[in-house]
Structures are given as C-alpha cells and as structure tokens.
Design brief:
It is a single chain. By secondary structure, this protein is of the alpha/beta class. Helices cover 28% and strands 20% of the residues. It has four domains: 150 residues, Spo0b-associated Gtp-binding Protein, Chain: A (Distorted Sandwich), CATH 2.70.210; 183 residues, P-loop containing nucleotide triphosphate hydrolases (Rossmann fold), CATH 3.40.50; 96 residues, GMP Synthetase, Chain A, domain 3, CATH 3.30.300; 45 residues. The strands form four sheets. The protein has a six-stranded mixed β-sheet with strand order 10-11-9-12-13-14, with helices on both faces. Strands 3-1-8-5-6 form a five-stranded mixed β-sheet. The chain has a four-stranded mixed β-sheet with strand order 15-16-17-18. The chain is elongated, with a radius of gyration of 40 Å. The termini are far apart.
Length: 512
C-alpha cells in the first residue's frame, strides 16, 4: 500500500449559496405590513494552506473528492441564513497547485500560504432586500448560486537545502540516517527507498535539511526506474551531494561511470523557467563505504581524478560514521553561501497585483452561432450568468425582474445590434447555459405595472390590437354593412318586399 504520494488530482465542489426567502410581515390589524424575507447564506470556500506538519499528499490520494458546506436559506422576520463553513485542506510546503488544464495557479513555498481554489456560491437576496419604493412587496426572492466545481492538480516538490543523488544501494538512506534523526528504510537490495526522505542536520550553528532522493539509473529522465517520478524533488535544492558506491559488486560499474550517468540524467531533466539548471548548482562528492578495505583502495584511486574535475571529495562511511563531520560542515558552508546570495539578491520578484475593474470594461458579449437560417445568440458575462442562476423561472415576477436587469445592462441593445429578432434563440452562459425564446417586449419597467404578487402581465402576451389591425377590422365591418345594404336593395328590386310594407310594419311595431 502506498505511503507516499506526491501527485494527486482533487475533485472539488464548493458549497452552494442559500436561497432568499419570500415572506410578508403579519401583525395585528396589519395583514400585509411589508416584506421581511431574509437573505440566504454564502456557501463555504475550499482553501489550500501550506503546512510544515504535512509531508505527503496521501490523504488526498485516498479521498480525492472534497466538498464544503452549503449556505442556509433565508427566513422570515428578516433572518438571514447561515454561511457555510470553509473547508481548509493542509498541504505540504512546496506544493504546486495547477488547474485542470495544467496551468500553474500558485506555488506554496512558505508556511501559511493560502489559496482559495473553490469559491463558494453567493447567497440569494430575500424579498425584503429587493423591495423598492415602486415595488414595495416583491413576490419573489433570488436563488443562491452554485459553488465552484472542478478539478485541481497538486504536485509536491520537496523543499530541502541539499539533495542526495546516486545509484540505488549507494548508501543514501544510511547516510541521511547517520547525519540526521530521520529513520528511512534501509536494506541490501536496490530501490529500497520508494519516496524521498527528509532529514534535519545541525552542523555548528547552521541547520539545514537534506533530501534522500530515490535511486537514479541510466534513462531516469526518460522514465526508467524511479528517477522521473522523483527528480522534481531536486529542483528546489541549493546543493547536490553525489553519493558514489565504492564497494559495488556489479560488473561494469565504478564510481566514475556512476557519476557520469547521474550527471547525464541531471542535465537532461528540464527545470522550470527562472531556476538554475541542476548541473550549475554547487556539488560535492561523497565516496561511500570506505569501511570496506577494497572500497577504501578504490576511493583513494579515483579521488585525484574527481578533484581534477573540480569536485570537493569526501571519503565517508555511513556505517562507521567516518568522515561525516567534515562533510556536514562543507554542506553547511554551501547552504550558508546560498542563503547569503539569496538575501543579497535585489531582483524584483513578480508580485500579484490586484487592480480594480476598468471603467470601459465590457461586461457582456453577444456572439452569433449556428447557421444563418437558424442562428443562436450566446450571451456571456459574469453578471448575466450569475443573474440567470439566481432566477426562479417558476415565478413570473422573478422572470420579469431578470428581464429588467438584463435590459439595464444593455443585453437587449447588443442583441438588436447582433441582428436578433423576436422569437430568436438566445443562450445565456456556456455549454450548460439557459435557453430563451427572446421577446423584446419584456423591456418595459415592471415597477410601473400593477399586477398580483408573483406575476408579471408582460409574460401573459399582449392582447392589445395594433393600429393596422384595428384599421383592418374597421374596414371589414364597413364592407360587411355595405354588402348587407346591397343585398336588401337587390331583394326590393326583385319584388320580394316594398318600402310601403316596411313602413306599415314599422307603424304596427310602434302601436304595439
């Protein structure tokens, strides 16, 4: 079973906002004393926090699905709903956070750094907050918006001062156990170390951390062995310590060939932009296992050649602890030198700058999709998409309120400019947007209309005839009357009745 995980994908769902409440205050002798519906509470955020108490992403490997609390709904008597509790997820220091597309969001390199990766939904307003002087008792409230849903990639890159690199079974785990209080697994077979081990070393007045990186072999940068999985843990180190096995019994291997292979793999590994390449960082060489007589002879033989290459060489034994004190002091010097260099670095670091929204920023965009015969007009923008989520489409008054908000934002003007006509298909949002059959007549102000609460007469259809329709009806009636008079005249001319008979009938009717 896995005990160390340095890559994981989190599936996050932030809390949804609570719905607003529709309520009317009722008092004695005041059956309708005004709206008093409270607002819904905001949903909880999902926050990542860098913590030195965490060393692995294993908890998120076992439980990758995380959800924060939803906000509570509003209530009558102007009582607002409760806000959902934030979900705080501690991650190891050195964790890189990326979105689902692989874009880096933040590098949590310091204790206490925080990032909100999943913002919670916004609570809806109650009808008390929606009341105005013209709409004194709204019969609707706004719904809470859904919380953010998506995936976040976490990648751990160990934060250490010195990295121990070398072939499997070179004695790196034994060395870190000897110079620190770390207790790594030690055995006499290759690839004993399956994950990086961290140890804290004190040398004089200097304290620094050492990372034991799992063994590298030829082709590690291309995915062979475990090197590709753990070379990323070398990126943040100030110095490298090559641990060479002087007592290996494998044919074709010796300290010099091992060093050449490791250097080639380190050179082939690409570091992030702005970081120093691995081979340009300070490096020391430790010839290990000199407690074996043959190994001591081999160390004495290869040491001059290593020094000719410019390396500081230390002959050590992790078992007998011979030569460890000079080695730790040399490592401390490199660490102190690197820290001093960073402290004196006056390079301006990239900072996160929060800027207010520009006055001329476009809040709404309308694009035409589909064919020319059946176009679809897609409306995108933070405000209209949020407003759609807040609208209860079962309430006509709420739909009319949405139409007014969109009209004030200029959505209808942009639709007209894009060529939309009445009955056109309009989509507000992305792939899961809300589809409308656009009716531009909804732009009239709802505050100027009198209608029962929870209804909007503009949605009932316009029964008033236009001027052309009234004129057509008038001419139709006039033509019908003229046709009736003409028919009577034809009957009289045919002798079916006489005008005297008509006058006599009229006289009899008057006598009755």
């Amino acid at each position: 079973m896995a005990t160390f995980v340095d890559r994981v994908t989190l599936h996050l769902t932030a809390g949804h906002g609570g719905h607003g409440c529709v309520s009317v205050r009722r008092e004695k002798f005041k059956p309708l004393a005004g709206p008093d519906g409270g607002n819904g509470g905001d949903g909880g955020d999902i926050v990542l926090v860098a913590s030195s108490q965490e060393t692995t992403l294993l908890p998120y490997h076992r439980r990758p699905h995380r959800t924060s609390d939803n906000g509570g709904p509003g209530m009558g008597d102007n009582r607002s709903g409760f806000s959902g509790e934030d979900l705080v997820l501690p991650v190891p220091v050195g964790t890189v956070v990326r979105d689902a597309d692989g874009t880096e969001l933040v590098d949590l390199t310091a204790e206490g750094m925080r990032i909100v990766v999943g913002p919670g939904g916004q609570g809806g307003l109650g009808n008390a907050a929606l009341a105005t002087t013209k709409r004194k008792a709204p019969g609707f409230a706004l719904l809470g918006t859904p919380g953010w849903t998506g995936d976040v990639l976490l990648e751990l890159k160990t934060v250490a001062d010195v990295a121990l690199v070398g072939y499997p079974s070179a004695g790196k785990s034994s060395l870190i156990a000897s110079i620190s209080a770390a207790k790594p697994k030690i055995a006499d077979y290759p690839f004993t170390t399956l994950h990086p081990n961290l140890g804290v070393v004190e040398s004089g007045e200097t304290r620094f951390t050492v990372a034991d990186v799992p063994g590298l072999i030829e082709g590690a940068s291309e995915g062979k062995g475990l090197g590709l999985e753990f070379l990323r843990h070398v990126e943040r180190c100030s110095a490298l310590l090559h641990v060479l096995d002087c007592a290996t019994l494998e044919p074709g291997r010796d300290p010099m060939s091992d060093l050449d292979v490791i250097l080639a793999e380190l050179a082939a590994y690409p570091v992030p932009e702005g970081q120093t390449p691995l081979l340009e960082r300070p490096q020391l060489v430790a010839l290990n296992k000199i407690d074996v007589p043959e190994a001591r002879e081999l160390a004495d033989f290869v040491r001059p050649e290593l020094e000719e290459r410019g390396y500081r060489v230390f002959e050590i034994s992790a078992v007998s602890r011979e030569g460890l004190r000079p080695l730790t002091f040399a490592l401390a010097e490199l660490v102190e030198s690197d820290r001093a260099t960073r402290a004196a670095d006056t390079t301006v670091r990239e900072r996160i700058v929060l800027r207010p929204r520009a006055v001329d920023e476009v809040e709404v965009t309308v694009t035409v999709e589909g064919s020319a015969e059946d176009p679809v007009y897609r409306v995108r923008g933070a405000k209209p998409e949020r407003w759609v989520h807040q609208t209860d489409f079962r309430n006509d008054e709420a739909v009319g309120y949405l139409a007014d908000r969109l009209a004030k934002l200029g959505v209808e003007d942009k639709l007209f400019q894009a060529g939309a006509i009445a009955g056109a298909t309009v989509v507000i949002g992305g792939e899961n947007g809300v589809v409308f059959d656009w009716e531009p007549t909804l732009t009239s102000a709802a505050e100027l209309m009198t209608a029962p609460r929870g209804s909007d007469p503009r949605l009932d259809g316009n029964a008033r005839l236009t001027r052309e329709e009234r004129r057509a009806n008038y001419f139709e009636r006039m033509d019908a009357k003229a046709e009736a008079r003409a028919e009577l005249e034809r009957e009289r001319e045919a002798g079916l009745w006489h005008q005297d008979d008509e006058q006599r009938d009229d006289q009899e009717d008057d006598e009755r």
